[in-house]
Design a protein that fits this description.
This protein has 333 residues and is α/β, with parallel strands linked by helices. It has a domain at 2-182 and 233-259: Rossmann fold (3-Layer(aba) Sandwich), CATH 3.40.50. The protein is 40% helix and 18% strand. It contains 11 helices and 14 strands. The protein has helices spanning 11-22, 39-48, 62-72, 86-91, 93-113, 147-164, 199-208, 235-247, 266-277, 301-307, 315-328, and strands spanning 2-6, 26-31, 53-56, 76-79, 118-124, 170-176, 178-180, 214-217, 229-230, 232-234, 252-258, 264-265, 283-286, 295-296. It has a 7-stranded parallel beta sheet with strand order 3-2-1-4-5-6-11, sandwiched between helices. Strands 12-9-14 form a 3-stranded mixed beta sheet. The chain has a two-stranded parallel sheet with strand order 7-10. β5 (118-124), α6 and β6 form a beta-alpha-beta unit. α1 (11-22) runs parallel beside α2 (39-48), α3 packs parallel to α5 and α5 (93-113) packs parallel to α6 (147-164). The radius of gyration is 19 Å and the shape is globular. The N and C termini lie far apart (39 Å). It binds nicotinamide-adenine-dinucleotide and uridine-5'-diphosphate-4-deoxy-4-fluoro-alpha-D-galactose (UFG). The site of nicotinamide-adenine-dinucleotide has 29 residues, from α1, β2, α5, β5 and β7. Nicotinamide-adenine-dinucleotide (NAD) binds next to α1, β2, α5, β5 and β7.
Length: 333
C-alpha cells in the first residue's frame, strides 16, 4: 500500500515508517518539523535502505494537503501529527485545539475528497480519564484534566461521526499507553526539546548527566510503592500495531488499546533502568504533579484477538534501547 504518514518525522511516526517500509509499503511523510528534525527522515532511510518521500508541510494547510493527496493518491493515512505536551496545552489551549482538531479535520476531509478509505488515528489512554484499571475500549470515557487530552477525545468523536455517514470509510482509533524505548539501531528515538515532561527521557538525561536527579512526583498514591503506575510500551511494538491496524482496516470504526496490560511504578522503572544498564539514577521524592492519576494500564485483549497484535518487548529492552539512543544522540549534550 501507499501510506501517507503525517508527523512521520516524530518519535512514534518515525518508528512506524520503518515498520511500514520493512513490510514493503510505500511511505509519504508530511511533517512541519515543529517537534522533530529532517534528519529523522535520513535515519529512516539508513535503517530501511530506502528513502521515504518527505514533504515539509503543515497538516492544517488544506491546499498543501490537497496537492499531496492528488499527486500521490495514497491508499491510507496514519495521522500522528499533533502537539502533545500536557502542561503546555494548559498554558496555550487554543494552539492545541487549533493544531490537533484542524489537522484531523483537514486530513479527514482530504481522505473523503480523494477516496482514501483507511484512516488510523493516534489517540491516547488519556481519553479514559481517571477510570478503573485496567482500561477497556468499551468503558465510558471520563472527563480529561487538560486540553491535550480533550483534543484526542474530540478527534475520536469527529472521526466516529464522519464514519457513520461514510459507509466505505474505515477509522481505527489507537489508544496508546506510555510509549518508550527506541529502535535497536540507536538511530531514531525520543529526543524532546528542553526539559522532558515524560519519565523515561528524564531518566535517560539523568543517566547522561544532563540533569542532576529525577524528581519522583509523589509517593502517596494508592499503589504498591506509592508512586504512579503506568503501562510502558516499547515504541517498536507500537509501530507494529500501526502496520497491522492499517493492513487489517475494515469499513467502520474500531478502537484498540495499544499497551502491554502490565503496570509498572515509577520506582520500579527506575530500578529496572539501573539494572538493565548498570547505572545509578539519583532521585528525590517531591509533591504530586497536578492532573496525574494513580494508575493507568490497558486491557489489551481486543488488539490481540482482532489484530493478532501483542507487545513482545519487555521493560529491560525498553530501558536498554532508550539508553542506547540517548547515548548516541549528540545534538543536545
Ligand atoms: P512527536 O512530537 O515526536 O511527533 C509528532 C510529529 O508531528 C512531530 O514530528 C511534529 O513536528 C509533527 N507535527 C505537529 N503538528 C503538525 C502539523 N500541524 N503538521 C505537520 N506536522 C505536525 O510526538 P509522538 O510522541 O511521536 O506522538 C505522535 C502522536 O501520538 C501525537 O498525536 C501524540 O499526541 C500521540 N500520542 C503520543 C503519546 C506519547 O506518550 N508519546 C501518547 C499517546 C498519544
Ligand atoms: N513522573 C515522575 N517524574 C518525572 C516525570 C514523570 O515521577 O519527571 C511520573 C508521573 O508522575 C507518572 C509517571 O512518571 O506517574 C509517568 O509520567 P509521564 O509524564 O511519563 O506519562 P503520563 O502517564 O503522565 O502521560 C503520558 C503522555 C500523555 C498520554 C498518557 C497516556 O505524556 O500524552 O501518557 O497514558 F496521554
Amino acid at each position: 500500500m501507499r501510506i501517507l504518514v503525517t508527523g512521520g518525522a516524530g518519535y512514534i511516526g518515525s518508528h512506524t515508517c520503518v515498520e511500514l517500509m520493512q513490510n514493503k509499503h510505500e511511505v509519504i511523510i508530511v511533517d512541519n518539523l515543529v517537534n522533530s528534525k529532517e534528519s529523522a527522515v535520513e535515519r529512516i532511510a539508513a535503517i530501511t535502505g530506502k528513502a521515504p518521500l518527505f514533504y515539509k508541510a503543515d497538516a492544517t494547510d488544506d491546499q498543501a494537503m490537497d496537492l499531496i493527496f492528488s499527486t500521490h493518491k495514497p491508499d491510507g493515512v496514519i495521522h500522528f501529527a499533533g502537539l502533545k505536551a500536557v502542561g503546555e496545552s494548559v498554558a496555550v489551549p487554543l494552539a492545541y485545539y487549533r493544531n490537533n482538531l484542524l489537522s484531523t479535520m483537514v486530513i479527514t476531509d482530504n481522505c473523503l475528497r480523494h477516496g482514501v478509505n483507511r484512516f488510523v488515528f493516534s489517540s491516547s489512554a488519556t481519553v479514559y480519564g481517571d477510570n478503573q484499571v485496567p482500561f477497556l475500549e468499551t468503558m465510558e470515557l471520563l472527563p480529561r484534566t487538560n486540553p491535550y487530552g480533550e483534543t484526542k477525545a474530540m478527534c475520536e468523536r469527529i472521526l466516529t461521526d464522519v464514519a457513520k455517514v461514510n459507509p466505505e470509510f474505515s477509522v481505527t482509533l489507537l489508544r496508546y499507553f506510555n510509549p518508550v524505548g527506541a529502535h535497536t539501531s540507536g538511530l531514531i528515538g525520543e529526543a524532546p526539546q528542553g526539559i522532558p515532561n515524560n519519565l523515561m527521557p528524564y531518566i535517560t538525561q539523568v543517566a547522561k548527566g544532563i540533569r542532576k536527579e529525577l524528581r519522583v512526583f509523589g509517593n502517596d498514591y494508592p499503589t504498591s510503592d506509592g508512586t504512579g503506575v503506568r503501562d510502558y510500551i516499547h515504541v517498536v511494538d507500537l509501530a507494529e500495531g500501526h502496520a497491522l491496524a492499517i493492513e487489517k482496516a475494515e469499513p467502520g470504526v474500531e478502537v484498540y488499546n495499544l499497551g502491554t496490560g502490565k503496570g509498572t511504578s515509577v520506582l520500579e522503572l527506575v530500578k529496572a533502568f539501573e539494572e538493565a544498564n548498570d547505572l545509578q539514577i539519583p532521585y528525590s521524592i517531591v509533591e504530586r504533579r497536578p492532573g496525574d492519576i494513580a494508575e493507568c494500564y490497558a486491557d489489551a485483549s481486543k488488539a490481540k484477538e482482532k489484530l493478532g497484535w501483542v507487545a513482545k518487548r519487555g521493560i529491560v529492552e525498553m530501558c536498554q534501547d532508550a539508553w542506547r539512543f540517548e547515548k548516541s544522540y549528540e545534538a543536545r549534550a
